[in-house]
Design goal:
Elements (H helix, E strand, L loop, with lengths): L1 E5 L8 E5 L9 E10 L2 H7 L20 E2 L3 E9 L11 E5 L8 E5 L3 E3 L6 H6 L1 H14 L7 E5 L4 H12 L3 E5 L5 H7 L3 E3 L14 E6 L13 H10 E9 L15 E4 L6 H12 L7 E6 L2 H13 L5 E5 L4
Parallel strand pairs: 9-10, 9-12, 10-11, 12-13, 13-14, 15-16
Antiparallel strand pairs: 1-2, 1-4, 3-5, 3-7, 3-16, 5-6, 6-8
The structure holds NADP nicotinamide-adenine-dinucleotide phosphate (NAP).
Length: about 325
């Protein structure tokens, strides 16, 4: 089968087409014929080798061997199921997450990390959805315990995670303030944000006059990479949260080392794939309560992935960059 893999770490040109064997299944896995996948910022940290310098590198020892197939989300058709699989059968359209390696014709995924794709959702939208929807969902409801009428500041409201978080928070009845560059303001307002702040032009702390209950920080910030500490962005975030509020970061992995400020609960988490969460998300997509914005789609070829990585890293973009088998 075809796979697109890194044969060394570096610029997008290191992505090469290879022939690999179809993965064999464990009892709890499902074999999926991949139809679409997408790119997350973690993928380019692996691709360019930056992950090797990270204090988090020890978490991925078996994911740093070359050739390395990137991609951690998949949408496709079930071909085969393991002996203990009960929720899926061949022919089902499914979406979900794997640890790494979805840029392949066939992908083995844990049953508990998948959900059925609603009929009204395309493979491309489903291939873009898993990581960003799950992360936004768990941030708002599992870690943030967001309540209707609460005020929430969502950083990077046009990004993959941010554009989902804005929609879910608004649906839940929150007052949503988002940051985004001016290019994306109409887009973020259309998703439901009550206020949008151009982080490239103004200091967001000067625009927030009433403190917020929650900050959800999804802004890609290379300066947090080495230490996991949010630096100046962190200080500013604390300053706009009310006493006893919540600061959730999906980028600053060292944030819980901060001394407690005004009883604010500061918390980093890594999204954990769960079938029950994916089912809630699929239900939202089915009922048109959640749309995944596809910025652009690229073919499942080495050239397509090269262009997709360039688009994803260089921007400007909004929502997700998708790898699809629908175009050749
Ligand atoms: N912990 C977890 O489980 C988890 C899960 C998923 C993602 N992540 C991490 O979360 C981050 C976001 O992921 P993503 O998929 O949403 O990335 P993305 O689609 O590339 O979006 C990132 C956004 O950050 C914005 N941005 C950059 N600097 C900003 C600033 N100072 N203030 C406000 N916005 C800023 C960019 O907006 P402009 O285009 O306007 O510049 C862009 O829209 C990445 O670092 C990723 O690795 C963590």
């Amino acid at each position: 089968m075809k796979a697109i893999a890194l044969t060394s770490f570096g610029i997008p040109e290191v992505l090469k087409e290879l022939e690999l064997p179809i993965p064999s299944l464990t009892d709890t896995q499902v074999l999926i014929e991949m139809r679409a996948s997408s790119i997350n910022p973690a993928d380019y940290l692996f691709r360019n080798g930056a992950i090797l310098q990270s204090p988090m590198a020890h978490k991925f020892p078996d994911q740093l061997q070359l050739p390395l197939v990137l991609g951690n989300e998949v949408a496709g058709i079930v071909q085969e199921v393991g002996r203990k699989v009960t929720h899926f059968k061949p022919g089902d359209r499914v979406m979900g997450m794997i640890q790494r390696g979805s840029y392949m014709d066939y992908v083995a995924a844990e049953e508990d990390h998948l959900a059925v794709i609603p009929e009204n959702v395309s493979f491309d939208e489903a291939g873009a959805a898993p990581t960003v929807t799950l992360t936004a969902w768990q941030a708002l409801f599992e870690h943030g315990h967001l309540q209707p009428e609460q005020r929430i500041l969502i950083h990077a409201g046009a990004g993959g995670v941010g554009h989902v978080a804005v929609q879910l928070a608004k649906q839940h009845g929150a007052y949503v303030i988002a940051t985004a560059r001016n290019y994306n303001h109409d887009f973020v307002r259309a998703l439901g944000a009550d206020e949008v702040i151009d982080y490239t032009k103004v200091d967001f702390t000067t625009q927030i006059t009433t403190p917020v209950d929650i900050v959800l920080d999804t802004a890609k910030d290379p300066s947090t990479f080495g230490t996991g500490l949010p630096g100046e962005m962190g200080e500013k975030n604390f300053s706009v949260i009310k006493e006893g509020g919540t600061y959730i970061s999906i980028v600053a992995f060292g944030i819980s080392q901060y001394p407690k400020v005004r009883n604010i609960h500061a918390h980093f988490f890594q999204a954990q794939p769960k079938r029950t969460d994916f089912e809630f998300i699929a239900d939202h997509m089915k009922n048109n309560k959640l749309k995944i914005h596809i910025n652009e789609t690229f073919a499942f070829t080495a050239q397509g992935l090269l262009q997709a990585y360039r688009k994803s890293e260089e921007g400007p973009k909004r929502g997700k960059v998708v790898i699809t088998k629908t175009i050749k």
